[in-house]
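With this grant's support, we have settled on a layout for protein records. A representative record follows, to show the layout.
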Amino acid sequence: SDVPNRFTFVCPYCRQQNLDQEGLVEHCNKFHFSDPTPVVCPICASMPWGDPGYRSANFMEHIHRRHRFSYDTFV
């Protein structure tokens, strides 16, 4: 059974709101895949160990490597 994601995030590029983790990945793939702007990962920033000031140099690579699964499943 799928555990619902308790968090929603804002797109770091265009500020679209209410994206769950999967929705954020899909949204960024569709609208921001080639954007080279360094941005703060909203998923990491929401975590207790996250650094809200750290800008990922390659956000799309980061989000695909780190956020293909939901942390909720493991908490």
Notes: The first strand starts at residue 39 and ends at 40. The mean pLDDT is 86. The CA atoms of residues 8 and 21 lie 7 Å apart. The longest helix spans residues 21-31.
